[in-house]
Amino acid sequence: MTKQELLLASELTSGFSKIRSILADRLYGTKLMIVPTAAYGEGWKPDYESHYRPFEEMGFEVIDFDLVGKSPDQVSVALNEVSVVYVSGGNTFYLLDHMRRSGFYDLVRTRISDGMIYIGSSAGSVVATPDIGYADALDDRSKASEVNDAGLNLVNFAILPHMDHADFSTLVQKTYAAFDGNGTMCLGLNDDQVIHVLADSFRVV
Fold this sequence. Notes:
Helix content is 34%, strand content 19%. By secondary structure, the protein is of the alpha/beta class. One of its GO terms (molecular function) is serine-type peptidase activity.
């Protein structure tokens, strides 16, 4: 791995104070792209107060960028304008499908290796793993137009968010107990936890 920096959260609202403490004000005045595609795949939209305003209060100029219908040229231009990309939660398979169809899948990895910071929440964190197949216990894979579970491979372990979520924890913990990654480690995250990845190392905050 290169100089990549990732912040992989279970749930943005509960984990934001830790994201803020890690980023501090070192990127104040730069642009941040919010990718709400996964949420749209489940029929909801990230609300302003919990997803956009916190980043604005940190000093970011926030850009909204849905991947659906975007061309690789459009994605490339947008990614080159930002210092941080935040990928929201929602349907993991729908998100990964549109990452590929738009060209985001390859382009974002290049930008991360160049120093752009990647922040994921829930589905946005799961797609950073080598293989998202285990998410079919939690998400509807029919939302994707093709079957290809290869994730962004930004980390070498699996991530299961929402281990302590009031509504999802029972199913998530059952999925965690049944996880078989053929040697791949799986990290279960409570909603207030964030994985901070720096180059080849990581810590759970």
